[in-house]
From TrEMBL:
Protein name as it appears in the record: Putative 4-hydroxy-4-methyl-2-oxoglutarate aldolase
Cofactor(s) demanded: Mg(2+); a divalent metal cation
Cleaved signal peptide residues: none
Domain of life per record: Bacteria
InterPro entries on file: RraA/RraA-like (IPR005493), RraA/RraA-like_sf (IPR036704)
Transmembrane intervals: none
Record bears the keyword Metal-binding: yes
Any Pfam family matching the protein: RraA-like
Annotated positions binding substrate: G95, D96, I97, M98, R117
NCBIfam families: PRK06201.1
Alphabetic keyword roster: Magnesium, Metal-binding
GO molecular function terms noted in the UniProt entry: metal ion binding
Length: 215
């Protein structure tokens, strides 16, 4: 068995800050950050519900989940286990057992750049889990791996301690230091979109929303 490098755990994101992003759509967050902070290619495997918490990042060898097991021993309530599995789909990195462990310890959810299994258990649960695909094939447990270091998932770098938000569309992350400015932009965007929807429903929409860079 190869040792796992465990770097210092970053501070948890302020619960009041996280609460400000409760029920905020990932699409709106992405739009307000130049459509950049998206972990492309991941989809939800759970039944429903928002993911929100502090990034506890993990890097693993393809198809090996030893570092994830160790992360579950040290992660805090409200942390999101964000796993850089290199996009490998040959073996599942988490399944029902690890889901049960995570839930029992108050982990906020899984974000897996790789595959999962026991998808029926995730589909019947509101415990958030995002991944690329599913396979019944189980993982190695030999390492190496590391935790709480910058990882790249879907072309986006996630740093330990980042805010993680997920919904039916996918997952976005951002550093907590920009949250106060970001939430103001998000609220302004929500007002603008509500105005546009009102114009559409009243038959007065003139196409103005299509002119700026909005989707």
């Amino acid at each position: 068995m190869t040792a796992i490098t465990q770097n210092p755990i970053p501070p948890s994101v302020d619960p009041d800050l996280l609460a400000a992003f409760q029920d905020v759509a990932t699409a709106t967050i992405s739009d307000c950050l130049d459509r950049m902070p998206v972990l492309s290619g991941l989809r939800p495997f759970h039944r429903e519900g928002q993911l929100i918490g502090t990034a506890f990042t993990v890097q693993v060898r393809a198809g090996d989940n030893l570092a994830i097991h160790q992360a579950l021993e040290t992660a805090r309530r409200g942390d999101v286990i964000v796993v850089d599995g290199g996009g490998d789909l040959s073996r599942a990195l988490v399944g029902d057992i690890m889901k049960a462990i995570a839930e029992s310890r108050g982990i906020a959810g899984f974000v897996i750049d790789g595959a999962v299994r026991d998808t029926g258990a995730f589909a019947a649960s509101d415990f958030p889990c995002y991944a690329r695909a599913a396979t019944p094939r189980g993982p190695f447990k030999a390492g190496p791996g590391a935790s709480n270091l910058p990882v790249c998932i879907g072309g986006w770098t996630v740093n330990p301690g980042d805010v993680v938000v997920g919904d039916a569309d996918g997952v976005v992350t951002f550093p907590p230091r920009i949250a106060p400015t970001l939430i103001e932009a998000v609220r302004a965007q929500a007002v603008r979109e509500a105005e546009v929807l009102g114009l559409i429903r009243s038959g007065r929409y003139d196409g103005r929303y299509a002119r700026p860079a909005n989707g």
